[in-house]
């Protein structure tokens, strides 16, 4: 029997490479990037949260609970996961970034299959080139360990993963994890065809 899963869209960063604007609200083909991500993620999970630290009302218009970090100073994606683990009522929590609108439509199912097959605490997506640690599925039971890691001043996602029983799950869909970090990225991809759902 599959376990219920909370999905979290991580939109709480400062968007430094995007000129300091809120990346999730930047338009791709006329729609905010977070909307593209939400439409792909929502069918894969039982509920969706949006991790955000600015423009909370705008994010709330997408119909999801908006969850600010509980750790100050824009502490990065682990702070978003930390806040989500603190409120989630499901055994598992999946995270995706707000700037990757072409994420696989079976991302969560495949991460969950890998997690259970390996008896792991956390599953991470990877493609032919590298791992993508922001695309992960974590057990809610990891909250105390993440709290301690952050309290020690650590912020690095990959380093935290190294402290856990982590499994990498391979995906071979071209462009599935493409992200848009700069205005130039958005401009270059504005007229692309959106990859078909897998």
Description:
With 198 residues, the protein is an alpha/beta fold. It has a single domain (5-189), classed as Spore Coat Polysaccharide Biosynthesis Protein SpsA, Chain A, CATH 3.90.550.10. Helix content is 29%, strand content 23%. The protein is built from seven helices and nine strands; from the N terminus they run βββαβαβαβαββααβα. The protein has helices spanning 33-41, 56-60, 77-87, 107-117, 143-151, 157-162, 183-189; strands at 5-11, 27-28, 31-32, 47-52, 65-67, 92-97, 122-126, 131-139, 166-170. The model is unreliable at 194-198 (pLDDT under 50).
The domain tally reads 1
If helices are DSSP runs of H or I spanning 4 or more residues, what is the number of helices? 7
The rounded Rg comes to: 16 Å
Task: Give the quaternary arrangement of the chains.
Answer: single chain
The helical percent reads 25-40%
End-to-end gap: 23 Å
Name the CATH homologous superfamily: Spore Coat Polysaccharide Biosynthesis Protein SpsA, Chain A
Strand content: 15-25%
Query: For the report, how would you describe the main beta sheet?
Result: 7 strands, mixed
CATH C-level name: Alpha Beta
Query: Can you tell me the CATH architecture?
Result: Alpha-Beta Complex
Question: Which runs of at least 5 residues are low in confidence (pLDDT < 50)?
Answer: 194-198
The mean pLDDT is 88
Question: Order of helices and strands, N to C?
Answer: EEEHEHEHEHEEHHEH
Total strand count, please?
9
CATH fold category name: Spore Coat Polysaccharide Biosynthesis Protein SpsA, Chain A
């Amino acid at each position: 029997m599959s376990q219920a899963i909370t999905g979290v869209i991580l939109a709480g960063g400062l968007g430094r490479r995007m000129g300091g604007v809120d990346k999730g609200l930047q338009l791709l083909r006329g729609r905010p990037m977070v909307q593209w991500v939400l439409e792909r993620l929502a069918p894969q999970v039982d509920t969706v949260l949006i991790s955000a630290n600015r423009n909370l009302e705008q994010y709330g218009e997408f119909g999801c609970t908006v969850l600010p970090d509980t750790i100050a100073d824009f502490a990065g994606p682990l702070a978003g996961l930390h806040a989500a683990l603190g409120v989630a009522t499901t055994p598992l929590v999946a995270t995706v970034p707000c700037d990757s609108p072409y994420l696989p439509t079976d991302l969560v199912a495949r991460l969950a299959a890998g997690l259970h097959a390996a008896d792991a605490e956390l599953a991470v997506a990877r493609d032919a080139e590298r791992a993508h640690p922001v695309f992960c599925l974590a057990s809610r039971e990891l909250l105390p360990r993440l709290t301690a890691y952050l309290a020690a001043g650590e912020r690095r996602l990959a380093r935290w993963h190294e402290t856990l029983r982590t499994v990498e799950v391979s995906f071979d869909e071209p462009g599935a994890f493409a992200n848009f970090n700069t205005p130039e990225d958005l401009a270059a991809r504005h007229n692309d065809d959106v990859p078909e759902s897998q």
